[in-house]
Specification:
This protein has 15 helices and 10 strands. By secondary structure, the chain is an alpha/beta fold. The strands form 2 sheets. The protein has an 8-stranded parallel β-barrel, surrounded by 9 helices. Strand 8, helix 8 and strand 9 form a beta-alpha-beta unit. The longest helix is centred in the first third of the chain and has 18 residues. The protein binds 3-methyl-2-oxobutanoic acid and zinc ion. Catalyzes the condensation of the acetyl group of acetyl-CoA with 3-methyl-2-oxobutanoate (2-ketoisovalerate) to form 3-carboxy-3-hydroxy-4-methylpentanoate (2-isopropylmalate).
């Protein structure tokens, strides 16, 4: 089984979510939970961005024991020096240096030529490598970069000492076929004496961030970057919990493993939701409130007979206590009688017949039927009889 490393950027790219601002204490709490979840590397922040970011990176560097702690830097010496300072207490520090490579970024944002970009990559990756054993380089907007130039930029970074190459789909423009093929092309054409880790970094603008990350893995990427609950700039980053669970559930297909402790997934997601103030949508894959809920009669009947009929993930796998069978107008007799038994009612066939009819009438008027509704229906039935 090929090992896939998990790089979590909840505290850096994830914090770029408009409206999210973690303080140092909150960042440390999240970082410690991420370490429990089993990630390989945490991107603790962008140390030069603010004194608060610097302090948080430093605090995480001091408490992390197993995981590598990375800090982000632009291709600027002052950024690299600042990241070095913030990470100097880390047991396993890593520099993450980036520079855009697409023409649109060069022309309008950086106002640099391709030659200048290559020179800057060479200068700053080497400068970083003099201070850090592990240097990651990201050609920002890689998926909208001319392919030959992207290869040249990445080869320049490798020649200057980068051993981790991250390929960002910065604006979520790519699709699984294209993104996977890009990895295959880069891995095939890069020359290096050292082992290079190729990493995916996807954004969800077109709703393909998880699919793109998995396509990269299928095509040789051995690291995935993302954020818990998929938080991040605009539509967000790859939701790491989705990748972790997909690799596990479809081990038959991906033939990969990771160090992620899946039973800590829900706890990790809950902490990030609480501290970010971003509630998890009910229908969110893997950790949404409805991910293990079955409402229609046919599904409920199947699940009561054997959960495998409609559940590919057991809730317990990700640390969710149990599945649920919420009662609504589509629910069937099997789920209804099971619920009534759970509530302590031993109903005769005749009582079930009458109560189920009343339940359906009520369910037509209400979105969801609660335990209290069922208790009231039963009490009414007793009163009338
Ligand atoms: O999306 C992106 O390009 C980034 C880089 C800084 C890696 O977040
Ligand atoms: Zn990003």
């Amino acid at each position: 089984m090929r090992k896939i490393q998990f790089f979590d950027t909840t505290l850096r790219d994830g914090e770029q979510t408009p409206g999210v601002n973690f303080n140092t204490n909150e960042k440390v709490q999240i970082a410690l939970q991420l370490e429990k979840w089993g990630i390989d590397t945490i991107e603790a922040g962008f140390p030069i961005a603010s004194p608060g970011d610097f302090e948080a990176v430093q605090a995480i560097a001091q408490v992390a024991t197993k995981m590598t702690v990375a800090g982000l830097a632009r291709c600027q010496k002052k950024d690299i020096d600042c990241a070095y300072e913030a990470l100097k207490d880390a047991k396993h520090p890593q520099l993450h240096v980036f520079l855009a490579t697409s023409d649109v970024h060069l022309k309008y944002k950086l106002k640099m030529t391709r030659e200048e970009v290559l020179a800057s990559i060479k200068e700053h990756v080497s400068y970083g490598r003099e201070r850090f054993e592990k240097v990651q380089f990201s050609p920002e907007d890689a998926t909208r970069t001319d392919k030959a130039f992207l290869l040249e930029a990445i080869q320049t970074a490798i020649d200057a000492g980068a051993t981790i190459i991250n390929v960002p789909d910065t604006v979520g423009y790519s699709n699984p076929t294209e993104y996977g093929a890009l990895f295959a092309y880069l891995i095939e054409n890069i020359k290096s004496d050292e082992e290079i880790i190729f990493s995916s970094h996807c954004h969800d603008d077109l709703g393909m961030a998880t699919a793109n990350a998995l396509a990269a893995i299928e095509n040789g990427a051995n690291r995935v970057e993302g954020a818990i609950n998929g938080i991040g700039e605009r539509a967000g980053n790859t939701a790491l919990e989705e990748v972790a669970v997909a690799l596990h559930i479809r081990k038959d297909f991906y033939e990969c493993e990771s160090t992620i402790v899946l039973s800590e997934t829900k706890r990790t997601s809950d902490i990030v939701a609480r501290l970010s103030g971003f509630a998890i949508p009910k229908n969110k894959a893997v950790i949404g409130g409805n991910a293990y809920a079955h409402e229609s009669g046919i599904h409920q009947d199947g699940v009561l007979k054997n959960p495998e009929t409609y559940e590919i993930i057991t809730p317990q796998l990700v640390g969710v206590h149990t599945n649920s069978l919420p009662l609504g107008k589509l629910s069937g007799r099997h789920a209804f009688t099971t619920k009534m038994a759970e509530l302590g009612y031993d109903l005769s066939d005749e009582e079930v017949q009458r109560l189920f009819k009343k339940f359906k009438e009520l369910a037509d008027k209400k979105k969801q039927i609660t335990d209290e509704d069922l208790i009231a229906l039963q009490a009414d039935e007793v009163r009338r009889s």
